[in-house]
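User: I'm new to structure prediction. If I give you an amino acid sequence, what do you actually give back? Let's try with this one:
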Amino acid sequence: MTGGAPVAPNVELVDLPMPEPAAGDLRVRTEASALNHLDLWIGMGIPGVDRPWPRVTGSDGVGVVDAVGSGVDDAWVGRRVMMNAARDVGTPPSPGGRDAGENFQLVGEHVPGAMAEYFLVPATNVVDIGDRDPITAAAFGLTHLTAWRMLTTRASAAPGDWVLIPGIGGGVALAALGIARHLGCNTVVTSRSEAKLERARALGASATVLDEGEDWSRSVRKATGGRGVDVCIDSVGAAVHPACIKAMARGGRFVTCGCTSGPAATTDLARVFWNQLSILGSTMGDMHEFRQVVGLLIDGRLEPVIDAVHTPATAAAAYAAIEAGHQFGKLVVDWRQDDDAAR
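Assistant: Good question. You get back a string of structure tokens that encode the predicted 3D arrangement of the chain. For your 343 residues, that looks like this:
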């Protein structure tokens, strides 16, 4: 894509040189890749990664390994793999030897991604998924990894907890709904669309709240018997933050992984300290977490929600759909060049 907003008109098919795997890398012949809201930020030039246009986005990719770089076992060739786009490149320790923690860079943001016939990924960042459907696997990756870390590593969600998920319909929100149900949690979801709420109920949401642009926290509390929610999993940001904080039970954990409606949220510090709330940031996840959640996909215990599957020729329409916020579930591009395979 070339830069600009709106993004969809700047999405085009171009010929680029065949990528060559560097040491430690796999080259993957793409079977399917999926869109995330991140693709829009990159298309608009945000966060401003210093790479020339055109840029190849795509942080969810599945395909068959066809070449390996030096230091990588040739046994990878011919295997179907699913990538974790989050590469922990580390941060040098500070004086005194303190570890500065994770420093993720993303395939599809900092380096070219999977919206292409071939992509490169470190061999350390893939899982062999055997004969699992590439479309389903591509739709699963980054959003389920993100939601898994939010619910388990960060929020320590437990059976019986009430989990609030604002803005149902997006990838992370739907992944959180599925994972919360898998963990035995109760769920209350919000949306500005009654049709999306109806679909969420069909997927097992315990309660739904229509967001009409006003404070809906009382409706969430009513759904939980007046107590409030134990966990909030949010990627919406400023537009819903005050209502989320008001909807929290004492000792609740608010976990944010994004801010599609803007980062400048107004909070209520009195509620935060009086109710002893925890406000936690979360982003993506490591390979241990990735293997955990992908194992649930492989075992058939979790499935992604897919809105539509496109071919490369219609990929711009997928970008337009996510830009308009019309989707309910993941938008996937099938790179196998078989139009009959697209659903």
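You can read the tokens as a compact description of the fold. Here is one thing that stands out. Residues 339-343 have pLDDT under 50 and may be disordered.
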